[in-house]
Amino acid sequence: MTLSVQPHRDAVGLPDGLMFVDGKWRPGQDGASWQHRHPATGEEVGSFAVAGAQDVDDAVRAARRAFDEGPWPRLRAGQRIRVLHACAAALREHADELRALQALDNGVPLSFASVYATSVGVAADVFEHHAGWVDKIGGQTLPPFQGGDHLAMTFREPVGVVAAILPWNAPFLLFAQKVAPALAAGCTVIVKPSEHATFTVLRMVALLLEAGVPEGALQVVTGPGEPTGQALIVHPGVDKVSFTGSRAVGRRVIEASAGTMKRVSLELGGKSPALVFPDADVNLAGMTAMGMVTMGLSGQACVAHTRALVHRDVYDQFLAAAQLLAGMITYGDPFDPAVLASALISEKQRDRVMGYIETGEREGARLVAGGTRPDGDLAAGNFVAPTIFADVRNDMTIAREEIFGPVLAVLPFDDEDEAVRIANDTEYGLGAGVYTTDVRRAFRLARRLRAGTVGINGFQVEPHLPFGGFQQSGLGREGGQSAFESYTELKSVLMPLTEELM
Ligand code: NAD
Questions:
Q1: Considering only CA atoms, which residue is closest to atom 21 of ligand 1?
Q2: pLDDT for the residue 231
Q3: Catalytic residue among 43, 128, 195, 302
Q4: Domain segments of the chain as ranges
């Protein structure tokens, strides 16, 4: 039987062809559209508008008006909190519909859309978390430093018009990680979803508007990086670009921000190491590392631990556990509850991953699982089998570059210092894992590893924890108080209380 997502598409009713700009759901001004093909089947699932420079300009002007004159930045804290809680409730209420839309967009299986970090629930939690900051973040009152008696105070003001540019792989979490703190801080927001996860984001925006976010405070422009994303990052009316995506586009965001000194937050790629010591639960470590590069997103996850650094004493045991899990991964129809992993997002990405697998073999790594593409019913999709390379050296391409596919590179080490040296020998620094039962070693390494988040015997993304990268994995942090503050400017206010200072 040929795989098809068409019946699900008909059941969901995709919001085709419109985006929300300047208070209206409308098509793009020049009538351009983008046809979305499903990654698991190659079917055309639906089309959406491509926003050109004029549409983006309309959105930015409306966001500017809403910021300068509209109600949102001026709402009382209690009112803004109520709206953000209503947003969370609306997302939870429509969780099934959103999960189905995501499966039609990026092909992430329904089974995985219930796992916390990739669930609709996490997006709702992020809105509730940031609702909690609205009445708790203010400024300071400071004593006079010199001169006569005076009041010295600081205030946190919203940064202004925010462009939130999203990748396609985790639209629930990544939409919320930007939109919730930006709205909580009183900014107005223009969202640009990835061209590979547009329908999910259109629906989330519609739900938030219905929940009470006023028009102008939240808009959505759809389309690919060129022309839509590019028009946003160069627009002088945008005060801050909050970007999640590849390092290459992240660099363009920095370049484009230079002209007007836009504020920039970047969440980029990774090549995260997992360090496995002989005293660890080695089977758990092998299963977890392999699970991170296969289950759900098939390794298309920024923080996946794609480099497993394993002590020689437990190297074979680790490989056996990873191979066992590789053999259990099921892929296919994302609506089938037994399916655990997705196809790769595009033919281009599939070919890139197969290219890395060839390079790994050419450079002398030992292929011990996968390396192939399925045939039969699945041949039309962008599937790649769970793949493991053993005996990888850290100077090999597959140990240095972000592959963004189901490929685990396993490297041996002999002692702790060598493990840390290999782990930190990377241009990235998003995540890391330490597997050990020695508490002192766990915390010693957590401090020595150059990464934004270190998991000890497991890994989780939490709404209240800062998340972001060292080095070329990004700039700034999402999650928690630091995310809220990144959508504010700090202002100092001074007032003499006597004649002396005047
Ligand atoms: P991408 O860089 O190709 O696209 C990201 C977004 O940028 C999309 O909306 C795209 O349309 C837009 N874009 C592309 N060119 C643009 C341009 N010239 N100007 C403005 N916008 C442009 O990335 P992707 O394939 O969607 O996502 C995969 C990447 O994202 C990986 O590198 C992954 O590691 C990273 N990622 C990072 C995190 C994190 O939190 N650090 C989370 C998820 C994904």
A1: 229
A2: 98
A3: 302
A4: 6-269+474-489, 273-450
Report if pTM > 0.90: yes
Q: How far from the centroid of its chain's Cα atoms is residue 252's Cα?
A: 18
Query: Which token pair is 461?
Result: 């993304």
pLDDT tens column, 46-69: 999 999 999 999 999 999 999 999
**C-alpha 24 to ligand 1 mean position (Å):** 27
- Class of CATH domain 6-269+474-489: alpha beta
Residue 308: burial class (beta carbons within 10 Å; 0-12, 13-18, 19+): buried
* Cα dist from 187 to 143, 222, 234, 363, 406, whole Å: 30, 20, 19, 49, 38
Scan for tokens 């609205």, then name that residue.
Answer: 134
CA of 275 to the centre of ligand 1 (A): 27
- Respond yes or no: is residue 187 known to be catalytic: no
**Fold agreement (6-269+474-489, 273-450):** no
Ligand 1 mean position, distance from CA 366 (Å) = 31
In Å, how far are 124, 293, 356 from 363, measured between CA atoms? Answer: 45, 21, 10
Closest ligand 1 atom to the C-alpha of 245?
30
Instruction: Select from 221, 232, 302 the residue to mutate for testing ligand 1; criterion: most ligand atoms less than 8 Å from CB.
Output: 302
Residue 466's CB: how many other CB atoms inside 10 A? Answer: 16
Class at the top of the CATH hierarchy for domain 273-450 = alpha beta
Measure Cα distances from 43 to 107, 174, 396 in Å.
12, 26, 36
Which residue in 267, 402, 478, 485 is the catalytic one?
A: 267
Rounded CA separation 497/139 (Å):
19
Whether 97 is a known active-site residue: answer no
Closest Cα to atom 35 of ligand 1: 245
Do the beta carbons of residue 369 and residue 388 sit within 8 Å?
yes
CA atoms in the 13 A half-sphere facing the CB of 143: 2
User: What is the Å distance from ligand 1's center to 78 Cα?
Assistant: 35
Give the pLDDT confidence of 117-156 residue by residue, as tens digits: 889 999 999 999 999 999 999 999 999 888 788 899 999 9
Q: With b meaning 16 or more CB within 10 Å and e meaning fewer, what string describes 372-397? A: ebeeeebebbbbbbbbbbbbbebebb
* Count of CA atoms in the C-beta half-sphere (13 A) of 44: 7
φ/ψ bin of 269: left (φ > 0), alpha (ψ from -120 to 50), beta (otherwise)? beta
The predicted structure's pLDDT at residue 163 = 98
CA 97, 100, 101, 106: dihedral to nearest 10 degrees?
150
